[in-house]
């Protein structure tokens, strides 16, 4: 009989990592968090809180924190990797020497690696060979998960048996985990939606109206599907929680880091000014470059993603870039 997943390591103690730790503890799991900052470790262990990243949430005393990733995974039955996407490879290399044999790894970072164009699962597979890989994605704001508000996510895993164990370990009535075997589709949805959220924020900040935002969401979904299919994912996966669901949430709420950043850009503020005020990472910023580069490498037409990349990474003028999108030839929808 397969052993159940009783102890979960959460690598990364930002807002999302903290919320997932809370959700896992509510599901009856023993949780060990890994935090980079010693003050975060102390706050979790001594004050049962993480005010630096998720203020106003009381953590269960059974949730404990360590600074060393190796100590976090020691004795764990599964690990959630909840670090910014561009740091995942370094964390994976650290874990390679410490992770128990065949420890299931759940990728909770949403992104595509700059320079290599690798999905997060591909990064993990390269650095942590022989470990089962899953991806967790879907429409989630960390604070709502931590407050136990109803949430549904996709948990994608190639190995059905391990996927079932992970779903059972993390899922509750108010944190509903839906199983999929399309890791690629789930990952592409999570990466691209952040870039599209910045685009929608720019539209909002520029005062271009709800019609324009709806058009961006819909045409952005088409871009997301193209990239997922080109990478070997399935179109229907992007019609679910990790695609359309996540896109809808992230493109319509100031609570979204990426949407709110886009609003500020659209209002004329610089990226440097906005990022200087924030502690948390807006994943759409680095991923605008990596998504656009991967699309170009694969020969995929993703004009909205390319436009965000042009504005954020290459000094493109907002009005000129928008005019370029609107001036594209009219074509068939499908």
Number of helices: 15
Strand order of the largest sheet: 3-2-1-4-5-6-7-8
Q: If classified by CATH, what would the architecture of the largest domain be?
A: 3-Layer(aba) Sandwich
Beta-strand content: 5-15%
Share of residues in helices:
40-55%
CATH topology of the largest domain: Rossmann fold
CATH class of the largest domain: Alpha Beta
**Annotation, overall tally of beta strands:** 8
How far is the first residue's CA from the last residue's CA?
A: 48 Å
- The count of domains is 2
Largest sheet: 8 strands, mixed
The structure class reads: alpha/beta
The coarse silhouette is globular
Outline the low-pLDDT stretches: none
- Please name the fourth-level CATH homologous superfamily of the largest domain: NAD(P)-binding Rossmann-like Domain
Mean pLDDT: 95
Q: What's the order of the H and E elements?
A: EHEHEHEHEHEHEHEHHHHHHHH
Radius of gyration, Cα only, in angstroms?
19 Å
Explained architecture:
The model has no long low-confidence stretch (mean pLDDT 95). The chain has helices at residues 15-26, 38-47, 69-73, 88-96, 120-127, 142-146, 160-170, 183-205, 210-231, 241-250, 257-266, 271-276, 284-298, 303-313, 318-326, and strands at residues 7-11, 30-34, 64-66, 78-81, 105-107, 133-137, 151-157, 175-180. The protein is an alpha/beta fold and 334 residues long. Strand 4 (78-81), helix 4 (88-96) and strand 5 (105-107) form a beta-alpha-beta unit. An 8-stranded mixed β-sheet has the order 3-2-1-4-5-6-7-8, with helices on both faces. The protein starts with 6 loop residues before the first strand and ends in an 8-residue tail after the last helix. The protein has 2 domains: 7-181, 3-Layer(aba) Sandwich (Rossmann fold), CATH 3.40.50.720; 184-326, N-(1-d-carboxylethyl)-l-norvaline Dehydrogenase, domain 2 (Orthogonal Bundle). The protein is 50% helix and 11% strand.
């Amino acid at each position: 009989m397969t052993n159940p997943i009783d102890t979960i390591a959460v690598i990364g103690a930002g807002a999302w990592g903290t919320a997932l730790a809370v959700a896992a503890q509510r599901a009856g799991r023993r949780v060990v968090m890994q935090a980079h900052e010693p003050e975060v470790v102390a706050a979790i262990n001594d004050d049962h809180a993480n005010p630096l990243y998720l203020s106003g949430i009381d953590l269960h005393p059974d949730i404990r924190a360590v600074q060393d990733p190796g100590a976090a995974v020691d004795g764990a039955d599964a690990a959630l990797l909840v670090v910014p996407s561009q740091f995942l490879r370094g964390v994976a290399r650290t874990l390679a020497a410490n992770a128990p044999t065949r420890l299931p790894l759940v990728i909770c970072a949403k992104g595509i690696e700059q320079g290599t164009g690798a999905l997060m699962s591909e990064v993990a597979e390269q650095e942590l060979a022989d470990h089962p890989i899953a991806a967790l994605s879907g429409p989630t704001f960390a604070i709502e998960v931590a407050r136990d508000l109803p949430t549904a996510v996709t948990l994608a895993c190639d190995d059905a048996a391990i996927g079932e164990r992970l779903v059972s370990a993390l899922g509750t009535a108010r944190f509903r985990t839906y199983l999929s075997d399309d890791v690629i589709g789930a990952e592409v949805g999570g990466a691209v939606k952040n870039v599209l959220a910045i685009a929608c924020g720019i539209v909002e900040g520029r005062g271009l109206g709800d019609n324009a935002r709806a058009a961006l969401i819909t045409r952005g979904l088409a871009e997301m599907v193209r990239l997922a299919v080109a990478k070997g994912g399935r179109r229907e996966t992007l019609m679910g929680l990790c695609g359309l669901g996540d896109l809808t949430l992230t493109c319509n709420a100031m609570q979204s880091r990426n949407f709110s950043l886009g609003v500020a850009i659209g209002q004329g503020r610089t990226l440097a000014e906005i990022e200087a005020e924030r502690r948390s990472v807006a994943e759409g910023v680095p991923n605008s470059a990596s998504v656009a580069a991967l699309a170009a490498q694969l020969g995929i037409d993703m004009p909205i993603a390319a436009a965000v990349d042009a504005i954020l990474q290459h000094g493109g003028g907002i009005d000129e870039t928008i005019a370029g999108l609107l001036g594209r030839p009219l074509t068939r929808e499908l």
